[in-house]
Each structure stands twice: as C-alpha cells, then as structure tokens.
Amino acid sequence: MIITLTTDFGLSDPFVGTMKGVILAIAPSASIVDITHDINSYDVMEGAFILDGAYRYFPEGTIHVVIVDPGVGSARRPIAMATQGHIFVAPDNGILSFVLDSDPRPTGTSAYHITNRSLFNSQISNTFHGRDIFAPVAAHLARGAPIDSVGPLIVDYKKKLVPKPRLIRPDTLLGTALRVDKFGNIITNIRPESLKGDFAIRVAGLEIRRRVSNYAEADQGEFFAIEGSSGYIELALNQGSAAERLNVGRGAEIEVETTGTNQ
Amino acid sequence: MIITLTTDFGLSDPFVGTMKGVILAIAPSASIVDITHDINSYDVMEGAFILDGAYRYFPEGTIHVVIVDPGVGSARRPIAMATQGHIFVAPDNGILSFVLDSDPRPTGTSAYHITNRSLFNSQISNTFHGRDIFAPVAAHLARGAPIDSVGPLIVDYKKKLVPKPRLIRPDTLLGTALRVDKFGNIITNIRPESLKGDFAIRVAGLEIRRRVSNYAEADQGEFFAIEGSSGYIELALNQGSAAERLNVGRGAEIEVETTGTNQ
Amino acid sequence: MIITLTTDFGLSDPFVGTMKGVILAIAPSASIVDITHDINSYDVMEGAFILDGAYRYFPEGTIHVVIVDPGVGSARRPIAMATQGHIFVAPDNGILSFVLDSDPRPTGTSAYHITNRSLFNSQISNTFHGRDIFAPVAAHLARGAPIDSVGPLIVDYKKKLVPKPRLIRPDTLLGTALRVDKFGNIITNIRPESLKGDFAIRVAGLEIRRRVSNYAEADQGEFFAIEGSSGYIELALNQGSAAERLNVGRGAEIEVETTGTNQ
Asked: Which terminus of chain C has fewer Cβ atoms in its 10 Å neighbourhood, N or C?
C-alpha cells in the first residue's frame, strides 16, 4: 500500500523522517512517497493545488497524508476522506479543496472526523499532529483498518473557494497565477479552451499573443503561452524564468482578451 | 529491515543516492529512510540533536547511519553502537552524544570499532566513508551480520557534553537555543517542568511571560513559550518566525526566571 | 528492481512525486531511489557528470531515469540504452556522455528510440515527458519488458565531448572545474596520476603545491589538492569552502604544471 506525504515541514528538520518512522513501525510494508515538503509555511491553498496535480497519478486506493496546519492543536478537526477513488488524511482546513473541486463525484465522497485515539501515538503533542495523529492513522488505514474506524462520518468538512477566471468584459477573462514552478513558468488558472482563436494575455504590463506547443518552438527571450502538464495555460520563456523576468508571483492578475473571429 | 540516513551531505550532489545504491546492492530488501541531509556542514552537535529527535520513533532494531564527519580519512574511528534498542553506525566523534545522554541504560550500550574490511567496499576512498564504509557495514548489519562482526568492542567511544541549563541565581536558569526549526521556532534546552508557576523568559532583550498549549491560541504578533514536539520549551510566534524577528540563532542565551508562588 | 531518478525538476513542485506515482502504478514492487533533482535547470552536462559518479554503485541491471530536457516536446528523441551493465532511460541530448565515455565497452552498448506508445501514459503532454513517457517506460522495463520492446535500435545517439585536460606546454596541463560540491570542494577533470612528483596547480591567481590524503591532514585555511571520491583531483580547504574563497565555479580553468624530477 502506498502512502504519500505532502507538507510544509521542509527537509532540514527531522519532522518528515520521524513521520516515516511512525508509519513503518505500524505498517512495515507501506511504500512511502514524498510529493513535496516545500509548501510555503502555513499556505493551505498552495498545498491544495500541489496535491491536486499529483494524487491522480497514483493508483486508486493510495493514502495521501496532507499537512499544512496552522491550527495544529486547536479545535480544527483531523479528518480522513474517501474521494475520487483515493483516501486523504489531513487537517480539516480546506487543503482538499482542489481535489474536491475537480471532477466531483457527489456520491463518491465520504469524510470522517478522526477521533479514535486507539489509532494515535500513545503521547499526543499539541504541535506535531503529523507525527502523533496523521501518520499513525494513515498507517493503520494502510494496514487495512476501514476508514469509518477513525471516527464519525461528517458532512460539514471545510471546502475553500478554488480561484476561477471570471468574465470582466464580454471578450475578456480575469484569471490569476496559481503558482510559479521551479523553472519560472507561471501556472495560471486559465484553461486551454479559453485561448481559442486570436488572443492577448496581459500580465505585469506585458502582452503575450503567441501560443506554442512545446518550449523549444519559441525563440530565445520570447514570452509565450503553453498548455502545461497540469492542464492549465502557463506563461513561459524558452530556457529562462518568465516569473523572474516579469517579477510576477502567485496571485498576480492575468487578463485574457480573445479577439479572434474563429473562436 | 530499516536503515535511516542522517548526514550533512545535502541533496544536490550524488552522495546520498550513491550510498543508497551501495546499501541496496548488499541488502536489496532494506527500507531506506532519510532523516535529513541538511545538517550544517561539519556540525557534529547539530546532527546529534536532530538524530535524537527522530530515532526513537522508528521500530526497535532500526539501523541509523549518521555522518557528519570532518575527520573523514584521518585516525578517527568508525563505530557501530547498540544502545536504546537501536543500532547506530557513525564516526566516533560525539555525534551519538544526545542519544547516549537521554534515558541512559548503562547495561544496554555496547560499541564496536569498525575494522572488518570484508564488510567494506572493495576500494576505500579517503574522502567518502559514507559510501565506502558506513553504508556497506549498515547493509551487512541489515542482512543479519551480528554487530560484533564489525570489529573489537570498545568502551572509550567519544561522548560530548550535551548543553544543559544551569542555575545562575536561586530563581534563574541559563539555557540555550539548541536549534531553530523551519518555521522559525526557537528550540531551547529548557524542559517544560522548569516553567511551573509564573515565569519570565529573557532572550535577545525580549521578555516572554506567556505560555500557550497550541500556536493558534496566541494573538498575532505575540511571542510565547510552548512545549515543542521534542519535549523542550520552544519560543514562537503564531504564523511567524520568532527567530527571524528576534534575530536569534542556535547557541543564543536564554534566561528563565521563575517568580511565581505556585511553582 | 531498482529505478533511480536524476533530474533538474527540484523538490518543490509535484513533478518527482508524480513520476513515482506513475512508476508504482505500473511496477508496484519497484524500489525508487533519488540520485538528485537539483541539477541546474537545463544543464545537460551537469546531469551527465552527476549520473556518472553515482550509477556504478547500484547493482547491475538497475534502471536509471535521467531527465534534463530543454527540448521536451520537440523532435529530440527519447531513448533507452543498455551500457556498462545498466539501463538508462533519457532524452537523446548527450546526458549519457560521461557514462559512455568512462570504461567504454564497444560491444556492450545498445540504444533504442522509444516509440512504443503502448508503454506511455494514455495522455501525453508536451511539457512533462518525465511523467508521460520516461517514468512509464522505465516501469515497464522494471516489470520485465525487454529493452528492444521500446522501439527500433539506433546507432546515432548523441554523445557530447567530455571535457579532458590537454597539454598546453610540455610540462603543463590545462584542465577545468567540473563541479563544486556542497562543501565547496572544486572537482577538477584532472586525474590523480597527473600529479606525480612536484606540481603547481594554478587557479584564480592562486598556486597550490600541496597534496594531502585526507582533509584533516591540512592546516586551517590552507588550500590543497586531494583525490576525491569520484576519482578526480579536488581543490579544497579543511572545513571551509574553497570555491567560495577563490570565487571559482564550474568551468573555471585549472593549470597543472609538473616540475618534479620523480614524475
């Protein structure tokens, strides 16, 4: 059974290694895979977006532990959720919003408030539920504990609004930068379908009118739009960082005007 | 069998991957877990502290390879040590000091000088004993080689002084910052028992009088003390970096005055 | 079966985790090992050098996925190559040049153009062949698919020139810095055999005449030459960064004059 980990814990502290120790002590044959531990500290929606790009490539039934948890130790609930054919173990703070938003199956989602202390570590800190609650619960699920053994079914789990582009003029969408990746590509929330026909994308005072199908197609130093691997339009440079050159980060406004006749 | 790795090798060079290749060539079914590879270069005591926070969460019998090794290739000994129910493979430079200091079992510790070259790589460099000695020895132990097969028993292994708070006035302890974590929390060497009753913690010109039980309990921008996940008092800010705001790093002095009557 | 990963993808995005999901969905019992994901973006020859230092420590038959791929989505070919007893899955852009250069076995190398779409993901992006082509092909190979099932044999795979020192005067070699490691050691392309007898190494205005056999042998603040773990001469400082102190990076010129009589 596979358990994935997505957190804002970084790799310099022993947090992630410790969680793996807890998991392997309970479920010695679990395969543990890191998605990333470099989520910006406390940034729930960044974690939500990263998780959504990755989880669907794992086999159905994979258990995903997802922890960006500014409310650790407070009244926010730990939850386990079955949805989209996968299982998620996380704080109930909206970190599953992107997963829930994409391809919703209204009848396939069930969420449980994790309350069964017999699945926890024997000592529970108030600052590291990744180690003391989420890791051991995921390990017990990997060993075959049924999901409803973690605690009572709930329906009021938290779902935050996923940013969508909106029409601000008849021919113009206002979108946003969801993320900048390691290469400096700006991942927008615009879907490729929105770029049919001629278009002008405006971001940070620049206008981009070219769409290419692969990076190498573009000229050196030329900004362009491209369909990225997570299914959104990305703004990019061939072998350069678009985000750095434009001084654009997550949350930046992106205007898309479609002027073509063949849209 | 689980083998953990804790080093100052970083993740940009092929050092860690190469060690894993060596281990898997000898012990194909070993589970290898990274604790961290981000120990500050040559900082033996940082490695010692990180290891101590993590190892106890692994199952008994786990083999921990721990390498911060400024003396690599010199006369410093490689050792294998059984203690606290776990096995450690490391240079004999004090990196096991925190492990040995906590919960000592005088009769449960035995250390061996690693000298049995039949357990090493066929070629031994003078600069990378992680690859050529520590990894293959750990792999042979994981495959079932008895610990005393690595070489002769020794009793004069190196143990460095673990920094403890000391009483500088009848009501005042002088402690130190053991580490700053990824979130900017300052991990002190003060134990929660020392904060009974009213108290004033002084660090970098600031006085902290509040202790909370979870981060979210504190107000925005308020410094507070909290029992951290490794069992020490931490100085923190809710969703901010206390270390950055106070410009405090590892080794900083921390004074704890207990003034309360109910201590 | 072991699959290693060497990329310039970094660890902050979900790229690497996603590839692991794809691999485990096809080959659930594969052992996946990261060599590094910190190759400089688009730097094919850095990837080639890193790979060469690591792959030989894995068991024969290991499958190495190596992706630094500025031409992703363009006409550059994906290839699978059997050489040196290992299998490599990579873009055909020279990233296997160091592997091919060292210890060549003219009769042991065979390369195949990956064209068999039945081994790919069902949807192929133009920007992430790591996920859509390289990972699933490696997983199928790990499950036992024969290498010639990926596509036709080719002989015109790309091999870039590996930088070698050259004689610029009867007693003087001109070499180069292949890499700076995490500790600031400057890895040159000079082999230890070239330093027989007395020598003077000139780099960035400094002359180094001392060679030691381990770091601790040198005095504090003294620059020296040492045989590094990858079999090249390295320029180093004891517990300091030679590269930082000399302000020297990859590609820097390194002159080696041998003046001794006993060479």
From this structure: C
Minimum CA–CA partner of C53 in chain B: B14
SS3 C106: coil
3-state secondary structure (DSSP) of residue C195: helix
Residues in chain A within 8 Å Cβ distance of B234: 127
Chain C within 8 Å of B131 (Cβ-Cβ)?
yes
Structure tokens at B55: 């190892």
Give the three-class secondary structure for A4.
Answer: strand
B11 CB near a chain A CB, below 8 Å? yes
Render the burial of C111-142: b for 16+ CB within 10 Å, e for the rest.
bbbbebeebbbeeebbbbbbbbbbbbbbbbbb
Q: Which residue of A has its CA nearest to B179?
A: A13
- Is A209:A198 a contact under the CB 8 Å cutoff? yes
State the residue for tokens 């899955």: C89
Q: Name the residue in chain B with its Cα closest to that of C214.
A: B73
Measured CA angle at A98 (ends A93, A103), to 5 deg = 135
What would the pLDDT profile of B133-176 be if each residue is shown by its tens digit?
999 999 999 999 999 999 999 999 999 999 999 999 999 999 99
pTM, full prediction: 0.96
How many CB atoms neighbour CB C166 within 10 A?
Answer: 10
Which residues have C-beta within 8 Å of that of residue C257, sequence separation ≥ 6?
Answer: C169, C171, C172, C199, C200, C201, C202
Which residues in chain C are closer than 8 Å to A53, comparing Cβ atoms?
A: 14, 18
Residue B126 sits at the chain C interface (C-beta within 8 Å):
yes
Q: pLDDT (tens digit, 9 = 90+) per residue, C158-205?
A: 999 999 999 999 999 999 999 999 999 999 999 999 998 899 999 999
Instruction: Tell me: ipTM over 0.90.
Output: yes
One-letter amino acid for residue C252 of the chain: A
Burial (CB count <10 Å: 0-12, 13-18, 19+), residue B241: middle
Chain C interface disruption, residue of A37, A39, A224, A229, most C CBs within 10 A: A229
DSSP β-bridge partners for residue C99: none
